[in-house]
Amino acid sequence: MQRRRQLADLREQRRAEENHRRLVAERERRRVQADERRRRQEEYQRVLEASRRALEEQQAREAAEREEKARQAGRVRTGVVVGRVRRPAAELLTAAAELARHEKLWVEIPGVPRVAETFTYGIPLYSRGAFHSLYGIVRP
User: What's the predicted TM-score (pTM) here?
Assistant: First the structure.
């Protein structure tokens, strides 16, 4: 009888150990799954953020291109008048540069300004940057 009891206790102990091993394995499996889910969510957030930034950059570039094309198409200046008084060419060029700066545009001012017949004997100013084009003509 004592032998049977020992065998029953031994079987019960083995069952308890097996149940414990299963519980430990199940906890580990769930932990690994949770880590994998967290890693996938973080990767998804990184990809989502990168695509959002790329879209914003593309939209900003397209808006700048549209703005520059609109400026080129409809806003070519034919002359700059500062008040009603004729001023020396240097002052007029400075005034033209200030106007361009207010429009958030940089212009090239020639080191030695020369009048050009093709520009009604005025000094041509060109914009700097990706859209290098005629900004205006200063007629001193």
Answer: 0.38
C-alpha span between 8 and 27 (Å, rounded)? 28
> In the beta sheet, which residues pair with residue 122?
116
From its phi and psi, is residue 76 left (phi > 0), alpha (psi between -120 and 50) or beta? beta
- Strand pairing class (123-127; 134-138): antiparallel
63-114 pLDDT, tens per residue? 888 777 766 654 444 344 434 434 566 777 777 778 877 777 777 776 666 6
The separation between CA 14 and the C-alpha centre of its own chain, rounded to angstroms, equals 63
Domain spans of the chain? 1-74, 75-138
Q: Provide the token pair at 122.
A: 């005025």
Detail the DSSP E strand segments found in the chain. Answer: 107-108, 123-127, 134-138
